Records
---
Amino acid sequence: MDNLNEHLPFLLRRENVARYEGGAVVVCDRRKYPFERAFVRCEEVEAVARVIEDMVTQGGGPSVAAVYALAMAARQAGEAPPEELRATLRRARDRLAATRPTNTSLQRLLDRALSVADEALRAGEPAEAAILAWFESFRDRYYQRAAAMGRFGAGLIQDGDGVLTMCFAETAFLFSLSFAWRDGKRIRVYTPETRPYLQGARLTAPSVHELGIPVQVITDNMPAYLMSQGKIQKYFTAADLVTLDGHVVNKIGTFQNVLAAHHHGVPFFAFSMSPDPGKPDRASIEVEERDPAEVRTCRGQRTTLDEIDAYYPAFDITPPHLVAGVITEKGVLSPYDLAHHFGGREEGA
Amino acid sequence: MDNLNEHLPFLLRRENVARYEGGAVVVCDRRKYPFERAFVRCEEVEAVARVIEDMVTQGGGPSVAAVYALAMAARQAGEAPPEELRATLRRARDRLAATRPTNTSLQRLLDRALSVADEALRAGEPAEAAILAWFESFRDRYYQRAAAMGRFGAGLIQDGDGVLTMCFAETAFLFSLSFAWRDGKRIRVYTPETRPYLQGARLTAPSVHELGIPVQVITDNMPAYLMSQGKIQKYFTAADLVTLDGHVVNKIGTFQNVLAAHHHGVPFFAFSMSPDPGKPDRASIEVEERDPAEVRTCRGQRTTLDEIDAYYPAFDITPPHLVAGVITEKGVLSPYDLAHHFGGREEGA
């Protein structure tokens, strides 16, 4: 396997997502990117929870930061008796899991980290080291799985394709673009800016540009018109959650673009490391609603008067009949066949 | 007829759109609204053309500012021989018409003003006074026509409706809301912010709020999700241009919302003072593309790096099969029946 890091832009390199440094969690500040390459150092679980809530990190970042926060909690509990340490880790897990009510992969990963800690404690070994050892190996596999998904994604892209995405579709999507480009496919990427946080404009567009692939930023109201002009052939996004019956939950706007894509015959593919066996259907989805004040500003500038009401659902839901495929490490799956592949015991969440 | 002005918010009151003041054109600066209530004073045709191009005014504003600019040009030409004055007015007309390639109502109105000036010159009367007299009477009728359209719009709104709009749908839409509200219909309005200029957040939301009607600002990627939640029952916009075969050209994003509305069974209505008899079909539409740099900023703040490419089509096109009705002063018309009503000689553009 070739060196995966070389296919990734700055933001997605392993050390730049978040890292564990001398008992502290160091998190790349994605709110400031690409204008600054800044990192936030967290020395308490609460600080990590807040950087996740405040969108300092997003996408795949919160999971990494949160597991390191558990390791930090274990270290800080020091020589406490196992029962007390377990209670501390459980509280930390609950605080961290509550930062992202919609994306259940964070909760699932934290539960696995707790199991790892628990096993270590039973064996009389230090929980911090056990969490870190397990997680570094998990991260190794994460990049290998993302690369496998990236190869499936690249296989769906044809020479000359215009590729639409939304928000910041993370490692597997960037691998797809990188592999397709390396294979000589001349592609062009369109990134809606993704209000209110502008992840498309700030994270995706500079990352694609960094890979040397042509990219254009558009505003979130433009995808349908570009499709009507014949500029877009494929639509790829990440997924914050995929239910076992094939509903794709992702950043607000994903579904709206899917409706436009469906009208124009453009297929929609969602990357998912693992559909959630604990989420059977649409009714089991909790869509996070964030502070409406965030809709009234853009990079700190007011966009309307403070007294005007606003509404901010952070995610939307695309039903399975509009999903052309869910790209997992097992291949490009039908949204109607996920229970068969992921309905059993959890592995590798 | 009741006093129409009382049904209108600050931005749409006759004196606040643009006015002719001692030989100068005074234009409300909609770029600064609602944070400032500022006016720009223009003493040359070129200055008026630039405030239109720079989006100081938009929607119905450019037509008003441009006709006053013609009156100003006639005044400044003073005692010039009729042929020289005609040439001056023709040059002014061409410069002003070029500011808005998509919205042909501006061009059509300027041509009528030229005819009025021409008739005056033939009769040996001053062109400035003739243009102003004709235009004040035109504006009287404009508000009466908008009120008639507003009553048709209000008739489509039911008690309890959630109403989606896009950009700033101007006088007829605000009349619709005002009349429906006065009739006791409890409605709620949703205004997508409308990037990149934020007309929805800055102009529509404060104007609806000023009328005392509940309104929520959302980002442009949210309408489809709100529809899936059952929050929206009607979708109304203005139209920069309606072709005789029923294509609706309006601010970018209008079409994307229509596709979402169609999926959810929400009807789409466009207000149009007059479909253009000179625009038979989609092929006759010119969609203005603006400076991509405008997509890379939001109220002066950068949203991505300067070296990232961007794309800015300012309008989109909704085909007639997705238009539930075109609201004109003649009623709520089928998009397939416009040629019957507007295909003949121009009146009242």
---
Amino acid sequence: MKLEPSKFYKAFAPRVTVLVTTIDVKGRVNAAPFSFAMPLSMNPPLVALGINYASNTLENISETREFVVNIPSNEIIDQVFKCSKTFPKGVSELEKTGLSKLKSSKVRPPRVAECVAWFECKLEWMHEAGDHMLVTGSVVEAEVKKELLKKNGNLDAEKARVLMHVGGNEFAVPFMI
Amino acid sequence: MKLEPSKFYKAFAPRVTVLVTTIDVKGRVNAAPFSFAMPLSMNPPLVALGINYASNTLENISETREFVVNIPSNEIIDQVFKCSKTFPKGVSELEKTGLSKLKSSKVRPPRVAECVAWFECKLEWMHEAGDHMLVTGSVVEAEVKKELLKKNGNLDAEKARVLMHVGGNEFAVPFMI
């Protein structure tokens, strides 16, 4: 059946949900989930995010030019979902949801301790793209929980229980085939 | 454990694998799988792909400015994997793998009949991004198999058995939580 073109993303699912941490010019931490997100280049390592214009995340990245892409598992689905709510600017979603900050190695925004992988990024370039801003970041440090990386170098996606957004409040986890 | 930054994408998984169909200036059909792919904007509807420079897909999109993003299920995993191999330019991966063409509504490249959703796209803009080209397309027609869209408007991702790439020849399907 035909979909309104503006609803095409409903059939482009599920999508890995990332939790993006940023800081504002005063150093206050923000965390927000996004599912318009993908790797873009391996060498140099680049990540791409589609971010809505009204978000504090976009304002923070524009001002401080750094962010961390945190990969959550379904263990923190409730906290991730809560982070999608609008809190006043300067209020830390991490504190409000009980998630813990972990110091990053090469950027100022913290990692989220309860996640399973972390990509520390510096803003590369942005490009307007309809109702979202395309934000690309250079990955300056990448880390994954040791027990989730298999000997062949692939993620143990099933063990990681990577949280993937289907739509609304519906999520999925991967099942290996 | 730390990852080489160039390997960060290994921990950014699994990713929906799309089969992109294009035509060259002579009208010959090409099909190739990509997993650096995401929705980018809803209104206007835009899709983003990270495409390696050497691919016929990028050459075709540059020349004919149209493409179809086809969403495969795991039922055609072998055919999708075969499409990732390099065939000489002008050789149709669809014919080589036994997949069927379905006429598109608004663009010249065909859809792949065996897929579960289809987004017909016109090239919007491209931007160099490391070892990949960031290609964005305007979605001019979107369709999904009727039995896979739930009444709430979300994809029945588990029934669709959307094919997601983990790494190498490892794939996953979604399991609702």
